[in-house]
User: Which sequence fits this backbone?
């Protein structure tokens, strides 16, 4: 074999080696970035655990780019972008130091049904006991896309009475406060908590 043929052969071998190395590197990179989709039950468990921790980073991985929240009995329906849900609702919720407990969880017809107990400073003021709900989680491409809520033990009479007392007190003592009770943002939550603490001190 002359030198020219040896050179050509070496070039071919080097090319094949480089190509093989590249294929291996690409395969490893894909493998590292790939994670098997979670099953729905685990996603639901992680979602409620993330709510309990008020963890925006964990919630971000579990919900769809849009999230629809529904309470059919009260004809309530709100669609959040992922950003708004995390930056507004989750941060509002976290202000009241919530505690979420999963009492029951099962999968049915592709959805996950959960019975949840929630306690926080706001609920404690309005109802004096944890709030029990049944949540139906619906999924899109492995992410939570719809949450439908049914109240289990909502004491509407007690809630309404305490709400009216608080609003009457605010009207007498802080007439400049506007709509703080319905402002589901972090700033609204902090204002709500400030009013609540002042009211409790006054009482």
Assistant:
């Amino acid at each position: 074999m002359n030198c020219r043929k040896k050179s050509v052969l070496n070039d071919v071998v080097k090319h094949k080696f480089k190509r093989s190395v590249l294929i291996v590197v690409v395969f490893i990179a894909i493998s590292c970035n790939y994670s098997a989709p979670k099953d729905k039950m685990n996603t639901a468990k992680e979602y409620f655990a993330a709510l309990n921790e008020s963890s925006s980073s964990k919630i971000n991985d579990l919900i769809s780019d849009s999230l629809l929240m529904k309470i059919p009995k009260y004809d309530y329906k709100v669609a959040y972008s992922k950003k708004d849900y995390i930056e507004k609702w989750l941060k509002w919720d976290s202000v009241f130091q919530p505690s979420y407990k999963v009492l029951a969880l099962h999968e049915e017809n592709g959805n996950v049904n959960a019975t949840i107990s929630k306690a926080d400073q706001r609920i404690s003021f309005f109802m004096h006991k944890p709030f029990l709900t049944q949540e139906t989680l619906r999924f899109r491409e492995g992410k939570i896309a719809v949450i439908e809520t049914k109240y289990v033990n909502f004491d509407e009479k007690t809630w309404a009475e305490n709400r009216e007392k608080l609003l009457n007190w605010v009207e007498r003592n802080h007439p400049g406060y506007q709509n703080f009770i319905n402002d589901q943002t972090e700033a609204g939550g902090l204002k709500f908590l400030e009013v609540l603490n002042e009211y409790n001190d006054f009482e």
User: Anything to note?
Assistant: The two ends are 102 Å apart (CA to CA). The beta strands are 63-71, 76-81, 99-108, 111-119, 131-140, 143-151. The chain is about 55% helix and 25% strand. The chain has two domains: 40-154, 158-202.
